[in-house]
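SEQUENCE-TO-STRUCTURE ENTRY
===========================
What this section holds: a protein sequence and its matching fold, both as plain text.
Tokens: labelled as protein backbone structure tokens, with as many entries as the chain has residues.
Question of interest: how does this chain fold, as expressed in backbone structure tokens?
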Amino acid sequence: MNISATAKTEGTVLVVDDANIMRATCQRALERSGYQVLAAESGEEALKLLQEKPAEVAVLDIRMPGMSGIDLLKEIKTRWPATEVVMMTAYADTAVAEESLHLGATAFLIKPFEHITILLDTVKKCMSRIRIRQGEIAEDGPLFEDILRQSGLVTEEQFVQARAIAEKGGFTLRQALTVIKVLAPKDIDWAIANSLDVPYVRLTDKMLDPDLIRGFPASLAHAYTCLPLFRSENELHVVIANPFHPQATAAIEKEMQVQAVLSKGSESEIRQFITRYYGPAPEQSLSQLLSNLQDDKTPDREKLLLELLRRTRLEKLGAVQVRPLGPDQWEFQISGRLKTPAEK
């Protein structure tokens, strides 16, 4: 058993392999990349380590004496369902690969690796999914920028322009990129989904099961712009406009009592089908709208503000400040008083 850490901690990774050389190789490479590493030579030892310190990502060998990697995967997913699990084996067994992925593994790697970066890239993607799912990555942070840079959708010149706009206007980098019309929000979501190996689904009528949709709460569909695609024994596959919404997965799993597997889809396509099956979204009460608008972490605050202005009356206009940010773009600050109708 070995627990080690570096000064810079990118997260905790558990490595389980009965082969000493392979375990040590993975451990050294991950430590050099800034991760804290828990290393175990058996499934039983790994569970003891996880009880003391849960890991965000677990890298498991499949064939080990005693508890197999598949059995360890089942145990981890039962006790620590948020942990991302990467399976590795020296045997290219398609059936075992499909079984491990069905049980909740994120990836299946064949060892020895052609290059250790295969493991490092896989772990990095796992960590990124966790951080985004937990809402811990700002839309102006280095990971967000790296993903867009790797996508090739944004030039360095556009990054410089967007950062300047963000700094002047108090925007996130994502908002600034949409302000200067470099990318639409759906293009940004697609780039993130593609980078993190999240499937992108184009919806058609044949893909949707009316019986499954009838059993899916309309409130979830409207709240997160999502629809169920198909259900297996332990999983519900869902197409969703934003697969990185911090509350979506938890809400779906709590309501449906099954593990949610999210795929990215076009917001307009999903909304079209939601309206067809469930009708238009119920209108939020003004008190709910105001409460959500005050929450800085609420997605689509711009839409909430437009909805509030649509449903209220301007009773008094105070100070107005407007200044240019760039071509066809303006920053404004308005103070005033709105009259909201009495709620029924």
The chain has 15 helices and twelve strands. The longest helix spans residues 117-133. The mean pLDDT is 82. The chain has four domains: 2-133, 142-195, 200-278, 286-339.
